[in-house]
Amino acid sequence: MVVVRREGLYCVPGGFYIDPWRPVERAVITHGHGDHARVGHGHYLAAEPGIGILRQRLGDISVQGLAYGETTEHNGVRISLHPAGHVLGSSQVRLECGGEVWVASGDYKVEGDATCAPFEPVRCHTFITESTFGLPIYRWEPQQQTFDDINAWWRRNAEQGRASLMLCYAFGKAQRILSGLDPSIGPIVCHGAVEPLNRVYRTAGVPLPPTRMVSEVDKADLKRAIVIAPPSAGGSPWARRFGDFSDAFASGWMLLRGARRRRGVDRGFVLSDHADWPGLMSAIRATGAERVVVTHGSIPVMVRWLCQNGYDAKGFDTEYGDDEAEDAAAAGAAAEGVAPPEPDPVAQRWAVREDAEAARAAGTADRQRQEPEQEEPEEDRDA
Ligand SMILES: [Zn+2]
Ligand SMILES: [Zn+2]
Question: What is the whole-number distance in angstroms between the Cα of residue 164 and the centre of ligand 2?
Answer without folding.
Answer: 28
